[in-house]
Structures
1.
Amino acid sequence: ARPVVAIVGRPNVGKSTLFNRIAGRRIAIVEDTPGVTRDRIYAEGEWLNNYFTIIDTGGIEPDTSDVILSKMRSQAEIAIETADVILFIVDGKAGITSADREVANMLRKNHKNVILVCNKVDTHILPDTFYEFYELGLGDPIPISASQGLGTGDLLDEVIKRF
Ligand code: GDP
Ligand code: MG
């Protein structure tokens, strides 16, 4: 079976933006089919002839913070059980939050399969917040801008090394 890559993290960090960028062209083809939802959770990804399934987690519905936290926990659990590689996304504009620490605590046991991704680094200069994320104990964060496409190639190089 294809390796499974799951994207986890608190709301608004850019999970779906990264999912769409990785799945990009393939999703666009599927969406030409009438009746296919735009809020896809699974897609096929490909990098340098390595094929994988990419999973977005987290819905689009607004929630209270309690509900968000319990959903994040269950998403992290599902990712740990089903994914070969977990992309844990944090927000380089916002800096570290208690929700990031909570998810990191769950993921640290599976450290070798987790890639810490610092999104919203839209220029080649690392923000001061970047260094805070070392506190999560998940190694070096990989800086990317999912919306600009910066660093996503380096990220995918790292992903396929873990298969
Ligand atoms: P999700 O809730 O984690 O799925 O986050 P979304 O992908 O829906 O993105 C949340 C917000 O962050 C949206 O307004 C995005 O346009 C914005 N965003 C996502 N990636 C980036 C990025 O790389 N840089 C910046 N500046 N904004 C981003
Ligand atoms: Mg989303």
2.
Amino acid sequence: MTKGNINVSVENIFPLIKKFLYSDHEIFLRELISNATDATLKLKHLTSIGEAKVEYGNPKIEVQVNKDEKTIRIIDQGIGMTAEEVEKYINQVAFSGAEEFLEKYKDSAKDSGIIGHFGLGFYSAFMVAEKVEILTKSYREGSTAVRWTCDGSPQFTLEEADKTDRGTEIILHIAEDSTEFLEESKIRELLLKYNKFMPVPIKFGTKTHTLPLPEDAPEGTVAETEEIDNIINNPDPAWTIAPSDLTSEDYIKFYHELYPMQFEEPLFNIHLNVDYPFNLTGILFFPKLGNNLNIEKDKIQLYQNQVFVTDEVKGIVPDFLMLLRGVIDSPDIPLNVSRSYLQADGAVKKISSYITKKVADKMASLINENREDFEKKWNDIKIVIEYGMISEEKFYEKSDKFALYPTVDGKYFLWNELTDKIKPTQTDKDGNLIILYASNADEQHSYIQSAKEKGYEVLLLDSPIIPHVIQKLEGSKEKISFVRVDADHVNNLIKKDEPVISKLNDTEKESLKKNVEETINDTKFTVQLEDLDSNDAPFTITQPEFMRRMKDMQATGGGG
Ligand code: ADP
Ligand code: MG
């Protein structure tokens, strides 16, 4: 038996680990299962290239909780460690074995999915355990098993042990202040949170499986049952599969797997897949949003090689895409670093602009493939697209290809279609295109009628951020102006084909106008009587466009 000091410069790192990571104690399980997964995938790789002369078989990782013993065990059938390797990889805290492994097998290991390090690693076990044992046996022929024990001080012991099968068993003796982790329900919750899509099957207890009855079984036969492993994860989630091998049902099935409490189906999915200049896979879903600007639950989840990291993706995906759902998996996103660092990180910026571009391209291809379907879904996805248009320049630049402008009559125009259509009738004397729109078809009914009678197209733009979209369009397109149908200058701005002759003479008009104005008694409004005859309304009361916009902007929280 060897005794020695763990090679760290600080007197006792364990209180430090505990304090430093206070809020995140639960990640110990993620770290230990990641190590077990790494060890398993390393063995898979070594057997596949002929380096390891053992049977790979169908290895799994098992998690056991023993409340009486106050232990949690994580057992794998991976490469295991020799005594020298324990010395090297465990005792020299700062040394990352994964790094060395990857360095050595750099080229061949690239596609093997070996997880690499999170940076917290094995020692996160001491956030919840007062004593940790490692019982391990290397895959190498003739190696002896060893037991490493450490009680949270820098001293450890290392001795020979009897373990006949290959792999590693980590035994955590749970500390008094962490007994919540001895609850099966807590461990199950953590496994489902962090490990639901990890690449090696994870067993947690057993479950009863009912065998199918033989076809000729007499009526009343009781089906036989058997106890089988309760595997909590799906090692091959949809985002790791090539899009060409997936059907639309597969995507929907995966959506429900990701969000078990979500009963509605997504409208579209976008499969992300890039390996240069960074690695990223994932699937994004467009949920039915309507005019809803926030989704609090069932957010986009971030994974690193199939290990759940977080669903706080602010700074990684552009804000407008946080309205979507789905998964992003990338080994290139730096973890466990501060948000401000993340936002400044080059890789993160590239990822963000890649996703934006990909979503824009997908929208363009969806509308080309099936315009009718896209129009039908527009109302539920418009908020994402409009939000993207006002917040991401690159997205805005592409948006003419897919942003729709619906009319009060249920027609949908792309930008160019709209401007072509209204050019002949809605250009003022200075050559400005006047785009008429309503924000509420019921309230603005009579104005809409009046505009339609003149042959104008009236858009129905009713999302909460539309004032910002209009501002953006007016600021970047040449010679266009949006005017709400009930604005005061609709009549002045639009070129009329023929003058309207009123039945009232000027004196009658003046007195009627005065009368109405006195009744309303509010300078915010203007009374107009000019087109009394061509309109089914007796006269119109309008509010100046600038006043109305100011009010709208205030309602949606200022500029975009
Ligand atoms: P990292 O995973 O980033 O390398 P860890 O602190 O998590 O850092 O683990 C340190 C090293 O200990 C690993 O790189 C690996 O060499 C070794 N190790 C840890 N757990 C296991 C295990 N279950 N099987 C084999 N080796 C392991
Ligand atoms: Mg690790």
3.
Amino acid sequence: MDSFDCLTSVVVFEDAFVSAICENREGSFLCRFKMRRYAQDAMIYLDHNSTTPVLPEAREAMMPFLTSEWGNPSSAYRFGARAKTAIESAREQVAGFIGAERSEIVFTSCATEANNAAIHSAISSNPKKRHIITSQVEHSSVLHFCEILSNRGYDVTYLSTSPEGLIDPRELEETIRPDTAVVSLMWANNETGVISPIREIGEICTRRKVFFHCDAVQAVGKVPVSFRALEIDSLALSGHKLGAPKGVGGLVVRNGLPFHPLIVGGKQESGRRGGTESVPLIVAFGAACEAAHRRPLSAWDQVSRMRDALEGNLLATVHGAYRNGCASPRLPNTLNFGIREIDSDLLVTYCDANGICVSSGSACMESAITPSHVLLAMTGSHSRASEAVRVSLGLESKPDELARLVALLQQFLVLAR
Ligand code: PLP
């Protein structure tokens, strides 16, 4: 049984207005509000787990490769060699940042590709092993790939999560079988920010001799991540979560392990990923990693304090508000909350109408909105999943922006209740 009756809504956009038919225990009513125009620089961006602004360092580093240095890195002449050298410098920057060897970095188009490629390689390296372990709260790039493998005859086990969003390493230990080919688990959840016991998971996989792939997209740059210090076989990274443009990512693969490429063609990336490299994006990714490497991680302490203050303020002053996921261990920038009987999509639209970008975990599938699979796995409640809103701060977020969000939520409740 759901613990709350959720307010549901049908949202219609017409001219500058949004109209929503809302329902609660007392019946249905019309909620109508204006989409205000706001200048880009007046926008309050609180959705950094979705994507981040491009860093000036990344933009500047890539510019020559969009203008004069457009050679193909595979060409034998010096014009091509300069592009190749730029890729190798970027590889050095990424490796230095995450504590890996240069030869362990494979550039990809995004973390989705890196996650697909890692699982593909692990199962191709062990063709007799037909069992895969992942969790119910992974990103769709892991879940949908596993779904396809399941349709091809692989047996996939989805680890459960506690109501607080935590994976239990004991469940992993009990689930590993002699035919387990790969364990794919994320470092930090993109919706709740909850951090998994990665060290313990790595130790279990090493002891049980199972390949461990980790989706570290949300953790990298926000918490200490050292590939060589942990027992991880491969790790996925995304450029646009770190201040690089969209369209570039990386897969870190431990030296000495066999690798079976997902994308085949040319011999780029030492035969581990075919296709002419996107030199500008790779160079920008390297520069973003270098910038993150130089920045002390303590820069996130201030963000964490702001997030905690926002959480305290929101829970104390917004009627019916509650937090989703445990308070700790959690990414320093993420708060996932719900407001009883308030549909998150309507709330996100109201925030947008007033110049604030936050997100709901819901996904648009075949023109229907489905509630967050993460919250559904954690709570078993459709209402809780439909109420989940994610706020994710960046290093440039300011306290007055968060105060504006809380004021807006209070204002919305007057409208909706
Ligand atoms: N994994 C996690 C945890 C993510 O949050 C995301 C993107 O939101 C991805 C993977 C996919 O990253 P990309 O957009 O680079 O494909």
4.
Amino acid sequence: QARRLEGVDKNIWVEFVKLAATYSTVNLGQGFPDFPPPDFLKEAFTRALSGEKHMLHQYTRAFGHPPLVKILAQLFGKLLGRELDPMTNVMVTVGAYQALFCCFQAFVDEGDEVIIIEPFFDCYEPMVKMAGGTPVFIPLRPKAPKDGKLMSSADWQLDPAELASKFSERTKAIVLNSPNNPLGKVFSREELELIADLCVKHDALCISDEVYEWLVYDGKEHVRIASLRGMWDRTVSIGSAGKTFSVTGWKVGWTVGPNRLLQHLRTMHQNSVYHCATAAQEVVAQGFQREFERYGKPDSYFVQLPKEMQQKRDQLVQSLVAVGMKPIIPEGTYFLVADISEFKSDVPDVPNSDEPYDSRFAKWMVKNKVNASALFHRIYHGVFVPSLLAVLIRASSGGNTTSGQRPHPDPVLV
Ligand code: PMP
Ligand code: GLN
């Protein structure tokens, strides 16, 4: 075994997807919708597979199928307020996951530090370590809830002095994830400016994971850090068609950024994955073309999806309150974190184990409460959230997720 694999062998998804299949519970941990993708996308896929363009079954350009990089450059050019070159400012990846992996491999050397904001999407830490880097953690800290009110993800904030103290000459990059998985926090412009100023001051890169960019609720604005002063040149913005169009199984993602950074991502990509599924890229390009034409209009999927998801969020908040949890209302994403401290006496201790309470709680739910919605935990670095559980906003109707359908029909997929 190569040294780079030491300490990165455990994976929360592998463990819990398997548990979900074994106990036939609904998987509310892994971020994928239980409703179908939009018709326009399914129809485009059928056309792509059966149509005249048989070349869609063959290899395409390594760094992104031309129609896809063109429309991504057009759309993100508009959103970032600058002209983008589809060939050098955009690269398509196998999901946002590969985009993240390429970034850490391409920019992080032995001894480099990468700042990660807690709580965070689990893969950042092992990916930094595999590149030889050292993760440096900075927590979002909760403000005490106001009397009787539920907390919002906006109540979780960075302490500016604490954040500044994490930057040094060893800092290579900071990973930003807004909207944040799992809190659902949508960073405000002021919060992003704080991060941006520190990046500029310390000449650090920003790896900006924006896979939930369209899933923002209550009229909040998703601000792209690459659009802030001094940031374009040092930011790689990462997106996911899986999250954008509710097709997580297609694994189409992308990076957008300056050529000085993307050239290194291309080197990484051409020496590993080389290129991504052509037909899926073609269909995602058509989806974006449609959305580009309808941008901001009521029939845009980017307008409709968050509207529907916001209702589901509100239902889930009510259900969790009804069973005695204290949900933290997310401003965006599929996720919701809830305080489960009320249940401590119900969940048995595991003798001789230092397994944290959230993990024991989630397993107890899966094994003992299969007729209730199964809540799946994810462990985050840092002990400051020991009684918090992240669950997924997903129920497609009426909040009834008790039918026991399997997340994947075939446990081999685990
Ligand atoms: N970043 C975050 C924050 C995510 O939640 C996910 C998926 N859950 C990804 C990246 C990976 O996205 P993809 O499925 O496109 O690889
Ligand atoms: N994409 C999933 C999420 O957070 C899990 C990541 C994965 O599939 N490895 O929800």
